[in-house]
Write a structure and sequence with these properties.
This protein has a single domain, classed as Amino acid/polyamine transporter I, CATH 1.20.1740. The chain is 78% helix and 1% strand. The termini are far apart.
Length: 429
């Protein structure tokens, strides 16, 4: 194998990793999950989960990737030959998530095209034909070409994308706060019903979204960490990434829910929430056509970053495990993801493919991105915390504070026990 490539700088690493989850994890999934699970109580549980669980496990995954300098499979095999199986489970999970991520990215591309041509409409109209399928195919082709270009291509795109996207989100949030429904939206988002926190279900979804937002348990962090130069300050980088991810999630809520309450839309619309609300906002603001075109184009590029990051996890594992060239590994990874993604794409076409009364895409999202991601995140943290020597982990993380390193290792070693017990009880009850 050739000498492993590296991120050119700490800034490039932070931007690329932040872009990996910002596009869909926070701008698409966070508002729809908050809308479906009560707003304020969900957000409070989400923030607690980010600080106490998500951030420590994020650091562990970065540290493991940096120590071993390999894919999730290679990283977990380094600890024990049997744990390589878990590495493959993480890679497969990421491929499953990417199968519908590519579909949703296709929606953002379709809305970008329609906004430029002045034909943006409600999501119901967008999904009347086979737009979801055709745009999915286009995004698969684009993602394949970028992955063939390698790590430098990812750096070039994200270095310019993130600052512009954040500026647009902040501007749209300020506009949303001037709408008449903004007060109701803020109460919905930040006035929690504390009694709801006694329900285990809200914590399950909050922890799932926290892990999803930070890309925990999906191999992203291990893979991106494996390209880290030694000079990068990992705790600082991880803190910045966490702050950016969490901040954009909250801004997305403040951007979308004023529109929801101003125009009497339902906050629990599900996966199409952002695609129904933002066209309404642009229709009712000055220069809305121009801003809509810019927003959906940037939304597409951010979502594409999520797809590229996720597929990079799969491609890296396939390339390194089977000793393939990058190009062959890309095609070997994309083909099964593409075939599975067709089912999710057909969920929002005249076929209306569904499972248990919900669109196939949403069923896969709720299963893979809420339940399995949490299990993979905590089991992976347990493997890292128990099998990597404490001294090696401390050096890799670069953390001087003893209280922080003790908390990180404690979470890694003992969180899997209650999570596994709870998961088993949910299956039995």
């Amino acid at each position: 194998m050739d000498e492993r490539m590296r991120w050119s700088s700490e800034r490039a690493f932070v931007f690329a990793t932040a872009a990996a989850a910002v596009g869909l994890g926070n701008m698409w999934r966070f508002p729809y999950m908050a809308g479906e699970h009560g707003g304020g109580a969900f957000i409070l549980a989400y923030l607690v989960s980010i600080v106490l669980l998500g951030f420590p496990i994020m650091l562990m995954e970065f540290g493991a990737g940096r120590t071993v300098e390999g894919s999730p499979v290679a990283t977990f095999r380094e600890k024990h030959r049997w744990t390589a199986i878990f590495g493959w489970i993480v890679v497969i999970l990421t491929g499953i998530i990417m199968s519908y991520y590519l579909v949703i990215t296709g929606w953002t591309l379709g809305y970008s095209v329609n906004s430029i041509t002045g034909q943006v409409s409600a999501f119901e109209n967008f999904s009347e034909q086979y737009n979801s399928l055709w745009y999915f195919i286009i995004v698969v082709v684009i993602t394949t070409l970028v992955l063939i270009g390698g790590l430098s291509r990812i750096e070039q795109k994200t270095n310019y994308l993130m600052p512009v996207l954040i500026a647009i989100i902040v501007g749209l949030t300020i506009f949303g706060l001037t709408m008449k429904g903004s007060g109701q939206a803020l109460r919905f988002l930040f006035s929690p019903d504390f009694s709801a926190l006694a329900k285990p279900g809200i914590w399950v979804f909050a922890v799932g979204q926290a892990f999803y937002s930070l890309a925990v348990g999906q191999g992203y962090l291990i893979t991106y960490g494996s390209y880290l130069p030694k000079k990068v300050n990992l705790p600082r980088s991880a803190a910045v990434i966490t702050g950016v991810e969490t901040g954009i999630a909250l801004l997305a809520g403040m951007m979308i829910f004023p529109v929801v309450f101003t125009y009497g839309l339902a906050p629990d619309e599900g996966s199409e929430l952002a695609f129904n609300t933002m066209p309404v906002a642009f229709d009712n603001m000055r220069y809305g056509g121009l801003l809509g075109s810019l927003f959906f184009t940037l939304f597409f590029l951010a979502a594409l970053s999520s797809c590229i990051a996720g597929m990079k996890v799969v491609v890296t594992a396939i390339r390194e495990e089977f000793k393939l060239t990058n190009k062959k590994a890309v095609f070997a990874s994309m083909i099964p993801v593409f075939l599975l993604g067709i089912l999710s794409a057909l969920s929002f076409t005249p076929v209306e493919l569904s499972l248990a009364g919900r669109p196939f895409l949403e069923v896969v999202d709720l299963f893979a991105a809420t339940q399995v991601v949490v299990l993979c995140g905590v089991i992976g943290a347990g493997i890292i915390a128990w099998l990597i020597p404490r001294e090696s982990l401390v050096v890799s993380l670069g953390i001087k504070n003893r209280l922080m390193i003790n908390w990180i290792i404690f979470i890694g070693r003992y969180l899997p026990i209650p999570v596994l017990v709870f998961s088993i009880l949910r299956l039995l009850v």
